[in-house]
Structures are given as structure tokens and as C-alpha cells.
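Give me the fold.
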Amino acid sequence: MARLKSFVHVTDAHGEAHVFGPADDVPAWAQALITNPKAWAEAPEPEAPAPSGAPRPAAKRAAPRRKAS
């Protein structure tokens, strides 16, 4: 189980601020937003990768370059 070693402030999708500390259960949505490895006493386990049959998003291509006149 993931456990913090310090207090962190996280803003959710609705713009509300939440504070989590060492004694709190950190929900999965907040674990994904806490990217500082120094904040964790026990880091959360990474999510399982998507199945290989899942469609991948198309790669974006850069606009063609214009030649200098």
C-alpha cells in the first residue's frame, strides 16, 4: 500500500485542493498526480499496462517546414 512520508497538496479535476499526509489513505486519482518520489515512504505500485489489443492513439505529425525565400 502506498504511504506518504510528508504532506502534499493536490488539486482535483474540479479545481478543489486536497491535503494528504502520512496517516491518510491516498486515492488512486491523487496517487497519479503526486509525482515527487521524495513525498512517498512507500511508492504506489504502477498500473498494469493496457492490453496489447487496445488501440493506440495516432501519432501527431509536425507541419511541413516552409523553405526560406
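The mean pLDDT is 85.
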